[in-house]
TrEMBL record:
It comes from the Eukaryota. InterPro entries: BBE, FAD-bd_PCMH_sub2. This is Berberine/berberine-like domain-containing protein. Pfam families: BBE. GO terms for molecular function: flavin adenine dinucleotide binding; oxidoreductase activity. Residues 77-117 form the Berberine/berberine-like domain.
Length: 133
């Protein structure tokens, strides 16, 4: 059994290529870059129970620096495998598909009942998702 907190790490999940790359990216809601990706890079960090907020904030900043490097490469990610602290979820999760997806959402959910942080339409709400902007 691994002790907690675990050491920092990173990895590459090779779930791209193959059949994933053969689907026309314009026929799905996924970010188009997902269909051309070689893999999914990720970072992991942790802190111990009882660590002060300053330690937790330091861990978050360290991860953000790593993500900033990847964003400089024009990266994207799959919505279910991303940080809840994503700075630009529209661009990172959906890319050029965002406006089309928002139009579809507005058609089938005109009152905005279904909302999730970073999801399509979340930009119409404040960060608490309790109040519309």
């Amino acid at each position: 059994m691994t002790a907690w907190p675990v050491p920092a790490g990173s990895g590459i999940n090779l779930v791209a290529g193959g059949a994933v790359s053969k689907v026309d990216p314009e026929t799905t809601g996924l970010h188009p870059a997902w269909r051309k990706a070689l893999g999914l890079a990720y970072f992991t960090e942790s802190w111990a129970d009882g660590d002060p907020a300053s330690v937790i904030q330091g861990v978050r900043k360290k991860i953000e620096r790593g993500v900033d490097i990847l964003e400089g490469l024009g990266s994207a990610t799959y919505f279910n495998e991303a940080s809840p602290f994503e700075k630009d979820p529209q661009k990172t999760f959906f890319g050029s598909h965002y406006q089309r997806l928002k139009t579809i959402k507005n058609k089938y959910d005109p009152t905005g009942l279904f909302i999730v942080a970073g999801g399509v339409g979340s930009d119409d709400w404040d960060s608490s998702l309790n109040h519309r902007k």
